[in-house]
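Hi there, hope your week has been kind to you so far. Please have a think about how the structure follows from the sequence. I've dropped the whole record in just underneath, so have a look:

_____
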Amino acid sequence: MTPPSGNRFEDFFADDAYVLLKNHLYNYLLRRRAVRKCLPAEMGELVLEVGSGLSPMTEASDRIVYSELSFPALRTLKSRQGRGIYVVADAVRLPFKSGSFSQVICSEVLEHLPEDGPALHEIASVMKPGGSLILTFPHRRSYFAGDDRFVNHFRRYELEEMITNLAEAGLKTVEIQKVLGPLEKITMLSVISLTPLFNRSQNGKQEEKRNQKALSSGFLITLFGWLNRLYCIPVWLDARLFPRSLATVLLIRAVKQQ
């Protein structure tokens, strides 16, 4: 597997259409729902979200620390939701004291890092003993394809591999959930395959400006949101019906050893 080059996400963060539509996507909505169900009802202590990007898993709160390598992403996120603590930081060099957090969220981050082991050890180091990590990740190496390369994935994971990686960082897996199934993979491959056609249909800057203006229309944003919410239903059912071995995204809750 050849690692992808460049940082596509810096381009995405500067794209108005991406910023407008990202948080309406069905796969983001289902992933966020799964993560939030694992969080305690009351979060009295600080919670760290590693690699939040533009799409955090948590509700805006003064108790949430949003950590992200991209300054443009954090700037945009802060301007949109305001509440929270925003820290520009690399996941492999977190600028927090040991034992600072009882809850850490790391959703769809490790696969974007050239070396994921140091990041897991950093995450474990800033967790309190007995604290929980909620982690989501793309499952099955055999699923690695064009959609992964498009979003700058270095890898996908086997479940046992991830459990081992967590154990080596001092984190014990206590819960495993299916988040997305094969239908999500088929959908993303289909969408990515149509991207070149969409790009070729752009005829100069004037048409691009018209498209961006159309995307900013409240009606189209609402329509896009409702279509994605409706599509959540078959995608959710797909994940429930297929065995865990075929899941495309898994969630693990792991606890730091005392």
Notes: Confidence is low (pLDDT under 50) at residues 1-9.
